[in-house]
Write a structure and sequence with these properties.
Elements lengths: L2 E5 L7 H12 L5 E3 L7 H5 L5 E3 L3 H4 L12 H6 L8 E6 L14 E6 L19 H22 L4 E4 L2 H11 L4 E2 L6 H8 L5 E7 L8 H11 L3 E4 L8 H5 L6 E5 L3 H10 E6 L9 H7 L4 E4 L4 H4 L6 E4 L4 H13 L4 H8 L4 H15 L1
Parallel strand pairs: 1-2, 1-4, 2-3, 4-5, 5-6, 6-7, 8-9, 8-11, 9-10, 11-12, 12-13
Length: about 375
């Protein structure tokens, strides 16, 4: 059986791209169909050895950030792709919809959904593009037709996989479809091995693409007020530059940019705690990676964090992000005697091995 993979676009490397990378390992001969790829980008370097087929609109979409204002062209992007020669198509779907391509009568289509497009359904997005009224009008008009396309293309999916219970609820709400929850693949065993024997240091760690809706600015402001040391790992993707964030940060904040996986794992292992305050994360792989290193987490009690963090056992969940609440959370965090083995045991529920096994079994059933 011929297999094809479909992914939003090849640009930044984040959680969705880690899922795609694992799917590529499972189906090494499968080509990747995508809206566009940006040569030399972090994601492009990871998938450089793969056969990647871009849409005919790629030359326009990849210019600067044209893919965002030209999102109304999404139906043309995917509609122009003919995948009827494949017996199985696996779509890695997020904000660019990634559905609506042509398939054969016997083609089975599986959609691994990171989330229905946040910008279409009123969720906070990584870039606040509706801050200006002309854009709001544009978004309202385009959004109406895009929601119709999003719903109609969703009805053609044979099997839905959600990356969390949180996202499964959204799929049911917006598409009226049931989804099987298979959590994203985390390198639990590898992280545990690399971080074994490391000594804790006096800093909190935050790992994220530097975009909005991740609570990054909130954590930076709290670090400045409450005086805790903070290391931030991640490439600039939504802010005009890292300098935009640095200007609001105090001397306790260190920006490390993108680092290798090995260095990232060591940062997880040496951190006294991991902190993330995104208020409605789809799932969130980085808190699980921190737990794989035996590092407890302070996180907002919402979204996917509620599924991966056990309050008082693997971390501290907070219901607000104001100074008083986070100050109390840090004091509570400092008083708890954390059990590294329990933290790592919880992380194993989200391992790469479980992802591969569950996806493999599901595909065996439908083909």
């Amino acid at each position: 059986m011929r297999v094809a993979l479909v992914h939003d676009y090849i640009k930044e490397y984040g959680g969705a791209e880690r899922v795609l990378e694992t799917l590529c390992e499972m189906f090494p001969d499968a080509p990747i169909y995508t809206a566009f790829r940006v040569a030399g980008s972090t994601a492009d370097k990871v998938f450089r050895g793969k056969k990647i087929i871009e849409s005919w609109l790629a030359p326009i979409l990849k210019i600067d950030s044209f893919y965002s204002p030209l999102r109304f062209l999404t139906p043309l992007v995917w509609g122009s792709m003919n995948l009827s020669e494949y017996g199985l198509v696996i779509s890695s779907s997020s904000w660019f919809i990634t559905r609506g391509f042509k398939v054969g009568k016997k083609t089975k289509v599986v959609c691994y959904c990171h989330t229905p497009p946040r910008w279409l359904y009123g969720y906070e997005t990584s870039v606040g593009f509706t801050r200006y009224w002309p854009v709001k009008i544009y978004s309202a008009v385009v959004g109406h037709f895009m929601r119709m396309y999003d719903f109609s293309s969703a009805q053609k999916i044979d099997i839905w996989i959600a990356n969390s219970e949180n996202v499964a609820v959204r799929i049911k709400k917006f598409y009226r479809k049931e989804a099987r929850v298979i959590y994203p693949p985390v390198e639990v065993e590898k992280i545990a091995k690399v971080t074994s024997g490391l000594k804790k240091k006096n800093y909190f760690l935050l790992v994220s693409r530097l975009v909005g809706a991740k609570g990054i600015e909130t954590v930076i402001a709290l670090s400045k007020v409450l005086g805790f040391k903070l290391k931030i790992v991640g490439e600039a993707a939504g802010f005009s530059s890292v300098e935009e964030l640095k200007s609001s940060a105090g001397e306790n904040v260190e920006f490390l940019g993108r680092v290798s996986d090995g260095e990232l794992y060591r940062l997880y292992g040496c951190a006294k705690g991991f902190i993330t305050l995104a208020k409605d994360e789809d799932f969130g792989m980085t808190p699980v990676e921190a737990q794989a290193a035996g590092t407890p987490v302070i996180a907002f009690n919402g979204g996917g964090f509620k599924e991966s963090i056990v309050d008082g056992v693997t971390g501290v969940l907070v219901n607000s992000t104001d100074e008083k609440t986070i100050s109390a959370a840090i004091k509570r965090f400092e008083k708890i005697k954390w059990d590294k083995s329990k933290i790592q045991k919880n992380a194993k529920k989200f391992s790469k091995e479980i992802f591969v096994k569950d996806v493999g079994r599901l595909i065996e059933k439908i083909v």
